[in-house]
Amino acid sequence: MSRLLPVLGNIAVLVAGLAALFGLPAFAETYVIINATIFASFAILALSLALIWGYAGILCFGQAAFFGLGGYTYAVAAINFGDTTGAAALAVALPALFAALLGYFMFWGRISDVYLGVITLTVSLILYRFVNQTAGEQWNIGEAPLGGFNGIPSTPILNWPGRPGEQLAPENIFSLAAGLLILVYFGCKALLATRFGRVVVAIRENEARVALLGYDTRRYKLAIFVVGGAVAGLSGLMFANSVFVSPTMFSLPVSGQIIIWVIIGGLGTLIGPVIGCILMQVLTNWLGTLNQVPGFGWVDPNLVLGVILMVFVLLVPKGLMALAADAVRWVVRNLPFPRRGKVPEGRKGDVRSASATGSHLESVHTSPFRRFAPPSPSGGRKSSA
Amino acid sequence: MDYAAILALQICSAVASLVLISLGLAVIFGMMRVINLAHGEFLMLGGYAAITAYNNGVNLWLAMLIVAPLTVGLFGIVVERLIIRHLYGRLIDTMLATWGLSLAMIGFVTVVFGNTVSGISAPLGSLTIGAYRTGAYEVFLVLVAAVLLVAGWAVLRFTRLGLIARGTMQNAAMAAALGVSPSLVYAVTFGVGAALSGLVGGLLAPLSGVVPTIGAAYIAKAFITVISGGAAILSGTAIASGLLGTINTAMTFAFTPVLGEVALLAAAVILLRILPQGITGRFFQRSL
């Protein structure tokens, strides 16, 4: 049973992804398709943070920097090249390179936890401020005006490789975005199953111990950070193709949104953040339309998002996926017929005794849900001191 | 000469504004190791409290110096009891929860006051130095920043309250063993930090006006200043503000305000690379 579940999960994800990939363009209107493209590109962005925060324990408060950089690189290069294929490749390569530089700076400086968050946040703010003021002639890169606050509304749409001028239709862009989402999802899974992935997860669990075993943890962290940057760049590329690029891509609310998706979906899972992202986007869109409805004019999207975030941090800190997993486990444990195979009975007791040895703050304030989950991996719960 | 005087005043003003906007955050972070991402919204709330009181006929100075800190201080204590208390020792979780709080506060204030700029004109008129004129209120703010720093130092250094605060800061378990209730100390600290934020929010309202989203303009700078400053609350904040404020003003004068901001942020990044524990993590370790 416990072996079978992950396989079943993978198959379910694949089926759902493929259904969306082939089903949606056939039935939905263009408006829905464009919206779905935005969701898919955001979901890729969610995966990028899910990977580096959930599995490598690197809390990047400025993932939007790579997102925006990917979008802008694509737009500028596409305007200059004419053909978009090379531009698309650059849109992934440049954020990856930037992540490599930033990562080298941070990991070789042995900067950790909050300080890392502050630096990434600051870098994305620098980019935001900078791009915001690039209005005017002197900020043209080749033929592409950066456009300051307005961004580049004339961001070119991808064309078929090698055939400049033949743009992809919105349905094709959606198929590409959804296809890339599926590819990135399983790519991340595969990456985490390799030796490299296991070392990265081990670093999240206990960096000092991994270092003492002879691994150069800085290199592993840098590598996973670069992968995260590249994936975020890719999502910026797809976003540029469904909307257009503007300085908001670098802004604090975007960085924050990604963190909310990951927290709500479940830190330390890949599918959770994707689901969290889509749920939150649907919710935000719906809240935006809600104030047209009489009697609900007072509802403010920020208010609702803020309350949801607080509730999740306080009551469901492991996210929706863990909640669902707990529910499934509870049902399995309480099934009336006798079970075959081993149900991890010991786990509950183990965790409890482990938490009893922890600090009293931890154990007193643990939420009821956490007890059933495996011991916390936590990029989350280290204190900085 | 006049130009030099104005430049010096501008630098003082930039430094003072950094000190003011980071002080509340520094008290909470230094004492409790809690990063309050709703700090910007505490400032915003202070501004609204002052303006609302003023519009209802309260004297402007009373509104800024008494009403704003009291309102936000009480609000802070409520927040501490309801949310923060459950998250001690979990730095990242407190950041996320307070960030949720900040979003909720922005939403709530938008609902109540609307998404428009409200403002009051700055009191005290203007000050003439040679051929230049500047607001006397800005000079007043520099003085307030200095007074707050000195008062904070005096309280921490000379009073019983300060002794308890420092003891809890150094070793909460030992302080508890000696009969101090850390829970009470934390609640009071959070209230004091919030009250400071409210005071500053009220004082800054005449300069910047208030909108529900104004917190975002402050939070990044405050956050960076406090982290660059390091463990010592007062001296760390003062030194970091001095350094970053000077760089900001110099670059603003030499180039543009935007480059000034960018230089401030870049300087902070480099500073943290060299001194990962902040300035007072390496220098002035025994200071407050």
TrEMBL record, chain A:
<feature type="transmembrane region" description="Helical">
    <location>
        <begin position="6"/>
        <end position="24"/>
    </location>
</feature>
<feature type="region of interest" description="Disordered">
    <location>
        <begin position="343"/>
        <end position="385"/>
    </location>
</feature>
<feature type="transmembrane region" description="Helical">
    <location>
        <begin position="222"/>
        <end position="246"/>
    </location>
</feature>
<feature type="transmembrane region" description="Helical">
    <location>
        <begin position="31"/>
        <end position="55"/>
    </location>
</feature>
<feature type="transmembrane region" description="Helical">
    <location>
        <begin position="303"/>
        <end position="332"/>
    </location>
</feature>
<dbReference type="GO" id="GO:0015658">
    <property type="term" value="F:branched-chain amino acid transmembrane transporter activity"/>
</dbReference>
<feature type="transmembrane region" description="Helical">
    <location>
        <begin position="88"/>
        <end position="108"/>
    </location>
</feature>
<keyword id="KW-0472">Membrane</keyword>
<dbReference type="InterPro" id="IPR043428">
    <property type="entry name" value="LivM-like"/>
</dbReference>
<feature type="compositionally biased region" description="Polar residues">
    <location>
        <begin position="354"/>
        <end position="366"/>
    </location>
</feature>
<dbReference type="Pfam" id="PF02653">
    <property type="entry name" value="BPD_transp_2"/>
</dbReference>
<dbReference type="InterPro" id="IPR001851">
    <property type="entry name" value="ABC_transp_permease"/>
</dbReference>
<protein>
    <submittedName>
        <fullName>Branched-chain amino acid ABC transporter permease</fullName>
    </submittedName>
</protein>
<feature type="transmembrane region" description="Helical">
    <location>
        <begin position="61"/>
        <end position="81"/>
    </location>
</feature>
<dbReference type="GO" id="GO:0005886">
    <property type="term" value="C:plasma membrane"/>
</dbReference>
<keyword id="KW-1003">Cell membrane</keyword>
<feature type="transmembrane region" description="Helical">
    <location>
        <begin position="173"/>
        <end position="192"/>
    </location>
</feature>
<feature type="transmembrane region" description="Helical">
    <location>
        <begin position="258"/>
        <end position="283"/>
    </location>
</feature>
<keyword id="KW-1133">Transmembrane helix</keyword>
<feature type="transmembrane region" description="Helical">
    <location>
        <begin position="114"/>
        <end position="131"/>
    </location>
</feature>
<keyword id="KW-0812">Transmembrane</keyword>
TrEMBL record, chain B:
<dbReference type="GO" id="GO:0006865">
    <property type="term" value="P:amino acid transport"/>
</dbReference>
<dbReference type="GO" id="GO:0022857">
    <property type="term" value="F:transmembrane transporter activity"/>
</dbReference>
<dbReference type="Pfam" id="PF02653">
    <property type="entry name" value="BPD_transp_2"/>
</dbReference>
<keyword id="KW-0472">Membrane</keyword>
<feature type="transmembrane region" description="Helical">
    <location>
        <begin position="6"/>
        <end position="29"/>
    </location>
</feature>
<feature type="transmembrane region" description="Helical">
    <location>
        <begin position="96"/>
        <end position="115"/>
    </location>
</feature>
<protein>
    <submittedName>
        <fullName>Branched-chain amino acid ABC transporter permease</fullName>
    </submittedName>
</protein>
<comment type="similarity">
    <text>Belongs to the binding-protein-dependent transport system permease family. LivHM subfamily.</text>
</comment>
<feature type="transmembrane region" description="Helical">
    <location>
        <begin position="253"/>
        <end position="275"/>
    </location>
</feature>
<feature type="transmembrane region" description="Helical">
    <location>
        <begin position="226"/>
        <end position="247"/>
    </location>
</feature>
<keyword id="KW-0029">Amino-acid transport</keyword>
<feature type="transmembrane region" description="Helical">
    <location>
        <begin position="194"/>
        <end position="219"/>
    </location>
</feature>
<keyword id="KW-1133">Transmembrane helix</keyword>
<feature type="transmembrane region" description="Helical">
    <location>
        <begin position="168"/>
        <end position="188"/>
    </location>
</feature>
<keyword id="KW-0813">Transport</keyword>
<dbReference type="InterPro" id="IPR001851">
    <property type="entry name" value="ABC_transp_permease"/>
</dbReference>
<dbReference type="InterPro" id="IPR052157">
    <property type="entry name" value="BCAA_transport_permease"/>
</dbReference>
<feature type="transmembrane region" description="Helical">
    <location>
        <begin position="135"/>
        <end position="156"/>
    </location>
</feature>
<keyword id="KW-1003">Cell membrane</keyword>
<keyword id="KW-0812">Transmembrane</keyword>
<feature type="transmembrane region" description="Helical">
    <location>
        <begin position="60"/>
        <end position="84"/>
    </location>
</feature>
<dbReference type="GO" id="GO:0005886">
    <property type="term" value="C:plasma membrane"/>
</dbReference>
